Amino acid sequence: MVIITTMVAGQSPSQGQLGIFDNHSDIGNVHHKGWASYSATDNTYTISGSGTNMWFNTDEFHFVWKKMSGNVSLSALIEMMDEGVDPHRKACLMIRQNLEPDAPYVDIALHGDGLTAMQFREAKGGMTHEIKSNHLAPIKIQLKKVGNYFTMYTGSTKKELEITGGSLRLELTAPFYVGLGVCSHNNEVLETIKFKNVVIKENLKAIDTVTKVESSLEILDIASLNRSEIYHTKSHIEAPNWTPDGKRLIYNSDGLLYKINIEGGTPQMIPTGFAKKINNDHGISPDGTQMVISDQTETGNSMIYSFPIEGGKPEKITPLAPSYWHGWSPDGKTLAYCAERNGNYDIYTIPFEGGKEIRLTSAEGLDDGPDYSPDGQYIYFNSTRTGTMQIWRMKTDGSNQEQITTDDYNDWFAHPSPDGKWIAYVSFNTDVPAGAHPPNKDVMLRLMNLKTKEVIILAKLFGGQGTINVPSWSPDSQKLAFVSYHPVK
User: Fold this and answer.
1) CA separation for the pair 180, 23 (Å, rounded)
2) Could you tell me the pTM of the whole model?
3) Residue 176, number of CB atoms within 10 A of its CB
4) How far apart are the first and last CA of the chain?
């Protein structure tokens, strides 16, 4: 790894050069010409920029930049000079494909009001999206690029740099531009911001074998595709459910369940009695009063249990194992699950109150991930019966089984939106075996319009197992909760 710091006192930059950077320039149709200066004495860049915004499909700002390639990181301490004219003025650390105003890029934008987000444009002329950090008004920020993954780190005077925003996957072609940007968010004025202790690190090494990850619990807005990280932890967490009242998320970690407010905060453990080996197949009743879990504490094989949503003693529902819960009928009377019987994994249903299980699928291969449509007419599931894992659906009695997705990816865990318009699911690349949904892979969250069958990508992330195993739609069908992961040494 090579570390580039600013010049020592007494050195003077060559013509057009600013410290470690090659040059600076205005990007886009700014009203006032920007400027930049560098002080080697205190290792500070002072940058003034105009511009209406860095958003939508074009940007206006002043950029201090260096052409680079490979795996790099950029960090700096940020000092807003005064209150400013607009609370959304931005100080940015940026990696940008080129100097065109509509270029693809990724940045960390610290706003004047303290909002911090990783912003990105995936394609030339495309729309800008963002991942909001759960850290407001950090002092220090860092943008790291390793391979095609970009990660945001933030810190304060009391805390070291930590991951505080879900990472994203975006491909930029070398060479690209690495630098500092300032946008006033009001094209009639110039805003001035100082960047201190600026450091570029080159030749960062990728983690070849992932043995440890940190976890980001995120919420994605379907209309804008913008994401917000509500909780980050060094622990491994999985599979968020959204409570029917819209106020909380419930996820599992290390065999236990936790709840957290959708605004974030400190998670609280849900008491689950003897059940201490809960996997990521758990869910909430339509009326919000009960939970079901898939737990293997008693026998070593997963069985399905229920208890009140506030917690309590689990009551067994499925007499046979292994059984993995995935769906709850809208009337609350029936559970759908994946179970292995006689060496074959198929879809079954059973009354919530217990009773005899009913087998719904019998095709060769793996059938998994059943979830009910909100009208109670269908069960969506994924199956390898065609050679790759694809999304299917059937009537709730198992009849009329039909294939829904037909692409080259391996598609898992289709979750219908509460309004019945979409299904969200996770897609693995073709290098993953059809019957596997492993952790720590390049995956996509995708969305299908059930009327038009149009499919869009919601997010490209590092995840897989644990990302979206269970129903995680907001009650109003406007948002989706999921978990992304970050490999760490």
Assistant:
1) 11
2) 0.95
3) 23
4) 15
Which tokens is 19 given?
A: 């410290």
Side by side, the strands of the sheet bearing 256-261 are 238-242, 248-253, 256-261, 268-270
Over its length of 489 residues, how does the chain's per-residue pLDDT go in tens digits? 545 443 333 333 333 579 999 999 999 999 999 999 999 999 999 999 999 999 999 999 999 999 999 999 999 999 998 778 899 999 999 999 999 999 999 999 999 999 999 999 999 999 999 999 999 999 999 999 999 999 999 998 777 899 998 899 999 999 999 999 999 999 999 999 999 999 999 999 999 889 899 999 999 999 999 999 999 999 999 999 999 999 999 999 999 999 999 999 999 999 999 999 999 999 999 999 999 999 999 999 999 999 999 999 999 999 999 999 999 999 999 999 999 999 999 999 999 999 999 999 999 999 999 999 999 999 999 999 999 999 999 999 999 999 999 999 999 999 999 999 999 999 999 999 999 999 999 999 999 999 999 999 999 999 999 999 999 999 999 999 999 999 998
**Residue 411: CA count within 13 A, CB half-sphere:** 28
CA separation, residue 140 to residues 4, 43, 93, 155, 338 (Å)? 17, 15, 11, 5, 47
Q: Which helix (H) or strand (E) holds 327?
A: strand 323-328
